[in-house]
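Q: Could you write out the predicted structure for this multi-component system? I'm mainly interested in how the pieces pack against one another.
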Amino acid sequence: MTEALLEVRDLRSGYGDVTVLWDVSLGVRPGDFVAIVGSNGAGKSTLLASVSGMLRPSQGHVLLDGHDMTHSPAEAYVRRGLVHVPQGRRLFPGMTVEENLLLGAYRRGRDGVRQDLERVLETFPPLVPRLHGLAGRLSGGEQQMCAIGRGLMGRPRVLLIDELSLGLAPVAVDALLEAVRRLHADGLTIVVVEQDVQVALEHATVAYVLEAGRVTLQGSGPELLTDPRIRAAYLGV
Amino acid sequence: MTTVQQIINALLLGGLLALVALGFSLVWGIMNVINLAHGTFIMLGAYTAYWMFSLWGVDPFLSIPVAMLLLFVLGAILQVSVINFIVRAPVLATLLVTFGLEILITNIALKLWTADVRSVQTHYAGRGIALGSLSIPYNKLGALVLALIITALLWLFLERTKLGRAIRATAYDQVGARAVGINIGRMYALTFGIGAALAGAAGALISTTSAITPMMGSSYTIRAFAICVLGGLGSVTGALVGGLLFGFIEVFGVVWIGPGYSDAIVFLVLVLVLIMRPQGILGRAFSAGVQEAGGA
Ligand SMILES: Nc1ncnc2c1ncn2[C@@H]1O[C@H](COP(=O)(O)OP(=O)(O)OP(=O)(O)O)[C@@H](O)[C@H]1O
Ligand SMILES: [Mg+2]
């Protein structure tokens, strides 16, 4: 087995006294396209937040390239190449799209920032005419592009995307999926939380099913797609 | 006095008041803390200039960097040790804590320097440019120019630098800010430090024109509050417009209503604006983001 890029061991996490994640373990290898699926409130966002320094786990370990990051702040993860695109986009609405994107490079030196900005705009052409407009004025799909673009500006090796397509128009979803697939083909490791289980599993090289804060199933995307339990619970067939 | 002279006076006062309000507005807009101790930072800036002048003969204008540095350090320390607990806390908590700070700092100043009224008498005090019957005192003109320069520098810092952008981003969305690797605590310490440094600069400028006492701060806090309400919260242009407007209101209010009523005029304006235009004249640049981040 190749050395895991991101490794999560027996992770417990939650909010205050409330434990949401119970002993979750998973591994992400370089080049993986990982999908995390589960119903509302299963703890998907809590998981992503706990493996990106946004939330402090109460027990267990998070390793990035073998380094123990369990108690590191989000900035340390960003510096080490793991960037989290949070649920709800969390853009800076009163700032321009360009400023939002440039802030994605906050943890880096100036080198190559302009080139990376160009590349992000090539990945998401609809952002070009909106570059000097406020991020708060973008459509939902454009906001998601801006959020992923902002994440890419940090030059991640692993990109965590929480709810890629939630609440977006089908056209926008297609464009975003296509862009993410291309990023993956170009070598970026991707972990995505996606409520459209069908779509998520079709793309995933590895998938985890999260139920009530525990991993209940795991396997390759296509494998899980044919699993009767998945078909009954998430695909309604 | 002619109307033209009053307009000049209003501009001179207004520019300085913009600087008085700037740090207050920044801290309120970015951290959602209404800092009632803001005036004490102005007082400390004025005392810095006073002691530099009376001990070593340093011109108050040259004391500005020293006052800013001292106040920046004090502000950053206060943020980390005290203010950090009330960032985005309910308004009452921020008012209570910063009011406590105001009392504490004022009383320490009283103990150290007594209640004696002091002033800085530079060699150019009382002199100025005379244009016919009009006069523009050197110290007030210098204060205006420096206030405008510092205001412009803050604007450039917030709009054009990486750090300034990160500070604004923090106000808009804390989760988003952390996701790109911004250290929120450091941004708040920086913001509060800058707010205090701006107050320190204002204090050093005020020392050239006004009496200095440990109690001088509170009237500036009230003015800063009124200016923020007038100009809109958390934006540099808001503070500038609000400050200039306020200069006019104060100067002409005194002319029309009478001297000795300037505090009453401040309150009157405050109440009127709060009734008629609670979002301020230029709208609220930061507060939309603040509410969004705070409510999430
Ligand atoms: N900030 C918070 N404070 C307290 N509890 C929270 C917080 N955020 C989430 N929770 C709780 O933790 C549990 C898991 O939430 P989480 O957001 O991780 O689920 P999710 O799988 O991402 O759901 P969704 O599909 O709705 O995004 C839920 O019961 C939720 O109520
Ligand atoms: Mg979620």
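A: Regarding packing and overall arrangement: The first strand of chain A starts at residue 6 and ends at 15.
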